[in-house]
Amino acid sequence: MTVPKVALAPHGMTDTAAPRLPYPYLLFLGDTTEPSFAKTAFGLADWAADRCVGETAAPGCTVSTGLPRLTSAEAQAAGARALVIGVANQGGVIGESWIAVLVEAMEAGLDIVSGLHARLADVPALAEAARRTGRRLIDIRTPPAGIPVGTGRKRSGKRLLTVGTDCALGKKYTALALHRAFAERGLAVDFRATGQTGIMIAGGGIPMDAVVSDFEAGAAEMLSPDAAPDHWDVIEGQGSLFNPAYAAVSLGLLHGSQPDVFVVCHDPARKVILGMESFALPSVEEVIELTIRLGSRTNPAIRCGGVSLNTASLGSGEAEALLGAESRRLGLPVADPIRGGTAFAALVEACLA
Question: What does residue 250 show for φ and ψ, rounded to 5 degrees?
Fold first, then answer.
C-alpha cells in the first residue's frame, strides 16, 4: 500500500523545533533484519518520500523500504545532502558494523543525521571523520532546555493521543493519517511529534523518550499548549503502558497530553512484546481499560474513539473481514488508516463526535 504524502506545518513549535535538517536524504538501514526496528526509515519513505533519494545498508541487512539501493557517492550525485540513520533499535545504539558506512558517507560529502540515544560525536571514528571532512553530525534526540514539571492543569483546545498494545505497530502512522483527515475536513489541527521519526517528518516536536522521567508530563504539556476551543492537537503516542521497558514514557505522555480522545493501535499478527518475547501482548480491551483509568487522572472526560489495526500482513479481503469482526466485537470503529475507506471515515467521525 502507498501512503499519500502529507504536508505538515508545525503550530506554535518555536521552542520545540528540531534543528534544520539537510535534505534530500539517503536512508541507512544498518544491519537490520527485523522491519519494526527500521521504523524511522519506513516512516520517512512513506510520509516524506519527496525528501528521500534512496537507501543504503551495512552487511547483513535483510530489510528494504523499496527505495533504490545506492552507495553514498551515488546518492550524493543524485542530490542527497545527508545520510539519515533509519534504525530505532533497542537502546538506541550505533552498531560497530555501521561505522565504515557512516564514515564513507561523510567522505562522499553527506552529513549524518541520527535519532538514536547514542551521540554520534561520542564515536571516535565518526568524530574524527567529521573533523577531517567538514561534515556535520546531527543528533535529533535532544529535548529542549527548561522543561517544567507537569502541573495537571486543564488546558484549552482538544487533544487526541494514539496509544498502543506495544511499540512500533502504527501509533505514528495513525496520528499522521488522523491529522490529515482532520485537515481535509477544514479543522484547525496540528500533528505533535514525540519521537525521532515524527520530528524529522514534522520539523518539530519533543523526543519524549530522551526526557528525564520527572519531566515527561511537563514536556507533554509544553508540546501541546493552550489552544483555541475548536483546535485539535493530534499527538503521536510512544511505547505502551504494558511494555516493561517503556511504560514510563507512555504514562508521562498520557498524563501530560490529557487527551479528550485516544485511539488504540494494535497489530493483530503480533502475539508478544517486540524484543521481549516472554511477555504476552495485552488485549485491546485491557489497553482501553487501563488508559481510561490512568488518563482520567488529568482528564476525567477521556474516552476511546476507536481502534487502529495494522493489517499490513493481511490481504485486502482478510483485512476487511477482520476490521468488521473486531468492530462488532468491541462496539467501536475499527480501521486500518493506511487502507482508508469507510471504516477509517467512521473512526474519524467517532473521534470528532
Answer: -60, -40
C-beta of residue 29 within 8 angstroms of C-beta of residue 52? no
- Whether residue 334 contacts residue 327, with contact meaning beta carbons closer than 8 Å, is answered with yes
The pair phi, psi for residue 258, each rounded to 5°, is 35, 60
4 HSE (CA, 13 A, CB side): 14
Cα distances (Å, whole numbers) of residue 301 to 26, 83, 352? 44, 44, 14
Residues 278 and 170 in one domain: yes
Question: 101 vs 27, 104, 349, CA distance in Å?
Answer: 12, 5, 47
Cell of 26: 539517503
The DSSP code sequence of 193-211 is: --SHHHHHHHSB---GGGS
Nine-digit cell string for 220:
507533554
Q: What is the pTM of this model?
A: 0.85
Provide CB contacts within 8 A for 9, sequence distance 6+.
190
300 burial type by CB count under 10 A (0-12 exposed, 13-18 middle, 19+ buried): exposed
Assess contact for 233 and 160: CB atoms under 8 A: yes
- Among 135, 166, 201, the domain boundary falls at 135
CA-based end-to-end distance of the chain = 29
Burial of 105 (0-12, 13-18, 19+ CB in 10 A): buried
CATH of the domain at 48: 3.40.50.720
Query: pLDDT (tens digit, 9 = 90+) per residue, 173-194?
Result: 999 999 999 999 999 999 999 9
User: Do the bridges between strand 232-235 and strand 276-280 make them parallel or antiparallel, or are there none, so unpaired?
Assistant: unpaired
pLDDT in tens, 11-41: 333 334 445 789 999 999 999 998 888 989 9
The three-state secondary structure class of 295 is: helix
CATH number of the domain where residue 274 is located:
3.40.50.300
Which residues are bridge partners to 232 per DSSP? 158, 189
Mean pLDDT of 66-87: 97
Hey, is 93 helix, strand or coil? coil
Q: Which domain holds residue 237?
A: 158-352
**Rounded CA separation 162/199 (Å):** 16
